[in-house]
Amino acid sequence: MAVLLTTSQTFIGRHVPDLKRKRHRSGEDGLESKNKGKFAKMTQSTLMDRRSLEVRRRVFRAENLHCDYFNHFYSREEAKTLMRDCEESLEYFTGDLAIVKLYGKTIPIPRKQVAHGDEGLTYTFSRVTVPAKPWLPFLETVRKRIEDQTSFKFNFVLINRYKDGKDCIGEHRDDEKDLDPQHPIASLSLGQTRDFVFRHKDSRGKKKTREIETVKIALEHGSLLMMNHPTNQYWYHSLPRKATQSGVRINMTFRKILRQAEDKN
Ligand SMILES: O=C(O)CCC(=O)C(=O)O
What we know:
Largest sheet: 8 strands, antiparallel
Domain Fe2OG dioxygenase: 153-258
Strand content: 25-35%
Helix content: 10-25%
Subunit structure: Interacts with PCNA homotrimer; this interaction is enhanced during the S-phase of the cell cycle. Interacts with nucleolar proteins NCL, UBTF and NPM1. Interacts with XRCC5-XRCC6 heterodimer.
Keywords: Dioxygenase, DNA damage, DNA repair, Iron, Magnesium, Metal-binding, Nucleus, Oxidoreductase
Subcellular location: Nucleus, Nucleolus; Nucleus, Nucleoplasm
Number of strands: 16
Bound molecules: 2-oxoglutaric acid
Distance between the termini: 37 Å
Shape: globular
CATH superfamily: Alpha-ketoglutarate-dependent dioxygenase AlkB-like
Number of domains: 1
Strand order of the largest sheet: 1-2-3-14-11-16-9-6
GO molecular function: broad specificity oxidative DNA demethylase activity; cytosine C-5 DNA demethylase activity; ferrous iron binding
Mean pLDDT: 83
Radius of gyration: 19 Å
CATH architecture: Sandwich
CATH topology: Jelly Rolls
């Protein structure tokens, strides 16, 4: 296991500085923003007193891996409300939309899954095409918050529900032709903390050509992980089984789906 953590910054207030505009040469972000002037004089203890409002960014870097992690993107209470909204309102796919096709076999997915998004969008992965159900108001609110704070736009969300640690998702890349490859994927986690593991494509299985350490991130309740380009081209990711964990976890990945066939060429 290895995590390359190049910076850890604390931001005050609900506003997470714009990820696109605030990035600068050193690769560190944020305190160059206007928040710097406003809060530079605060002492560390003042910052800690405001714990409920703090948003911390951790930057994960490895070869062609570029992720930003915000552990309190939503406060505990907000995330709890959001989790309740999910449990009360989401209707997960069943039947042919709750499978993957692998090596000619049809396998039920070890979790529940549903997608919402702009009208007419579909997303094909693991040889299954899932249609976007219409946005629900609470999902639009989440989308707006992520868009406002990252300055990226998203038109689709794939939601996975893991009933406990026995549910999981296997190693894969989100590199399908339906996705805009330059666009980040924003991954919001609710409920049980679970480990998310990145493995470089050259470092997998029998065809391994290089030894590259995996990158593991514990995704906490209310956190947001931004998977930025070109991470998904080079790194597979998974949420391994962890039988000892008993809590429900819900994950939303906000994506940008290409609408026109010609956009995908
Ligand atoms: O549940 C997660 O954190 C990961 C979900 C995932 O890998 C995906 O939606 O592609």
